[in-house]
Design brief:
By secondary structure, the chain is α+β, with helices and mostly antiparallel strands. It has helices at residues 29-33, 53-63, 101-117, 140-150, 168-176, 221-231, 296-301, 305-313, 320-324, and strands at residues 4-7, 10-15, 18-24, 39-43, 46-47, 68-74, 80-86, 88-91, 121-125, 128-132, 155-159, 183-190, 194-199, 209-214, 236-239, 248-257, 261-274, 290-291.
């Protein structure tokens, strides 16, 4: 954790090959200068497209947050402009004492609130249940409860847009909840050995219609899940091509020091995931059965045509504006 908290005041996402502003935090410098639906042409001189989106996001959001950034933008109407946006910076304590109750519980509360802002959510309407899953980090009880609710409906829409992946155990249990037999998700081809990744059938599976939503932010486990659905002809995948980041890695936690310790960690890639068709998704991603992208005007108006279309396929009429407001975005606490 850094000695200061940085928030640019806005969020951006890839739609196809282009990058758009999709969230703006109220009360920030960004609010007075940006508009949802603006296309980012360059960020501090770097062109932002699918080829370098990950590197730019990683550098400016994780490695080296900036006090301000220069953006070249194109509005939904086609007008271009150049602006400088000042970042919201909030200093933290430079040294945390985990043996101190105040510092310890501050860390706990931050973790709890971070989970709340990215928690899974569901919406039920008639024959359809919509399950928004931001990460593959659920325990078995939560999955069983949601699948149990889904069995009361004819159609499950699983929204994996923006889902970066997570736990392999969550992936296996979710796949096992949708089939009446064991499924091989992929073969993990490692540096020294290979091993199949098997999802064991368990309980009473959901056997209704399955629609999976993905986008450029869907990575790792969400990509594997979507591709299994395609290969096993279990459902339909709709949205944008996924990230193409499925290599399995292991995280190592380390520390240095004696009385005062510095904690750090790193990830090492250990295996590639080879699907049942003999191909890897690394750097290629999952191509949806039906590609459907929101426009800049859709983003600006708060419309979600992808979810609205998925609901229509399930037999439910859902206005795209209503779909866009179904799961309101929640900003992390400052």
């Amino acid at each position: 954790m850094r000695g200061a908290w940085f928030d640019s005041g806005y969020r951006y996402e890839l739609v196809g090959n282009d990058c758009f502003i999709d969230r703006i935090r109220p009360g920030t410098d960004a609010e007075s200068k940006l508009h949802i639906g603006d296309q980012i042409l360059t960020l501090n001189g770097f062109r932002v497209d699918r080829g370098d989106f990950h590197d730019i996001s990683y550098y400016f959001n994780s490695l080296a947050p900036q006090a301000s950034v220069q953006l070249n933008l194109r509005s939904p109407s086609g007008d271009e402009r150049q602006i400088v946006v000042n970042t919201l910076v909030k200093p933290h304590k430079q040294i945390l004492d985990i043996t101190d109750q105040s510092d310890y519980w501050d860390l706990v509360h931050r973790s709890q609130y971070a989970y709340l802002t990215s928690r899974p959510r569901t919406a039920e309407n008639g024959d359809i249940i919509i399950w928004q899953l931001p990460r593959f980090d659920l325990d078995i009880d939560r999955i069983e409860k949601t699948i149990g609710a889904a069995r009361k409906h004819k159609t499950l829409i699983l929204d994996l847009r923006g889902n970066p992946g997570g736990s392999i155990d969550t992936l296996k249990f979710m796949v096992g909840s949708l089939f009446d037999h064991d499924i091989k998700i992929c073969d993990l081809v490692g540096r020294k050995d290979n091993k199949p990744l098997i999802a064991k059938h368990h309980g009473t599976p959901f056997t209704g219609k399955l629609i999976v939503l993905v986008d450029s932010g869907s990575a790792s486990c969400s990509e594997l899940f979507a591709r299994v659905v395609q290969l096993e002809h279990r459902g339909k995948v709709i949205g944008d091509k996924t990230a193409g980041a499925v290599m399995e890695s292991r995280h190592y936690s380390e520390s240095q020091g004696a009385d005062a310790r510095v904690f750090y960690g790193f990830s090492v890639t250990e295996a590639n995931a080879i699907m049942s068709d003999g191909k890897s998704l690394e750097k290629t991603g999952v191509t949806p059965d039906e590609q459907l992208l929101p426009t800049a005007a859709d983003l600006a108006a708060g419309r979600d045509p992808v979810l609205a279309h998925a609901a229509e396929l399930g037999g439910m009429k859902l206005d795209s504006v209503a779909a866009g407001g179904l799961f309101p975005f929640e900003w992390p606490r400052v």
